[in-house]
Amino acid sequence: MELNHPHRDEALEELKRAKVVAVVGISPKRERPSYYVSERLISRGKHRVYFVNPRYAGMEILKIKVLPSLKDVPEKIDIVNVFRNPAHAEGVIKEALEVGARCVWFQPGAENLEVIQRYKDKIKIIYDACIGVEAGYL
After folding, report:
1. Exposure check for the chain: N or C terminus, fewer CB within 10 A?
2. Phi, psi of 34 (to 5 degrees)
3. Please, how many CA atoms are within 13 Å of residue 43, restricted to the half-sphere of its CB?
4. Which domain holds residue 119?
5. pLDDT of 127-137, one tens digit each?
6. CATH of the domain at 77
């Protein structure tokens, strides 16, 4: 019997449509989910991936130069993939709206349901699904 993930179909379809993914909260530490999930997404070769983290701006992680903010991504962002503390959710959504991103995807543990409720009619929001798991279906 297959378990039916509540967002799997929607999340997978969003990932299939996306060309550009900006990962917010990337870490150079291999043991961090932002690192190994991004590594899996990149390995699929289906997206142009940008990393955003002001702490590591200018550093290369997985051969990708880290940018200080979403505003520094040089093309339209389809998915803002978030690996941040839920306390930062609103700031990430606001910046995603400013740059015209299509979707904000909160990785498990990064979501803030109160903030999601407040912004759900302003931008597509995915949560409770791991982009690395969904990338496995591509």
Report:
1. N
2. -60, -30
3. 13
4. 8-135
5. 988 898 888 87
6. 3.40.50.720
106 assigned to some structural domain: yes
- Is 1 contained in some domain? no
Q: Token digits for 84?
A: 């941040």
pLDDT confidence of residue 134: 87
Residue 61 domain-assigned?
A: yes
CA dihedral over 32, 34, 35, 37, signed as positive or negative: positive
pLDDT digits (tens, 9 = 90+) for 11-27: 888 999 999 999 999 99
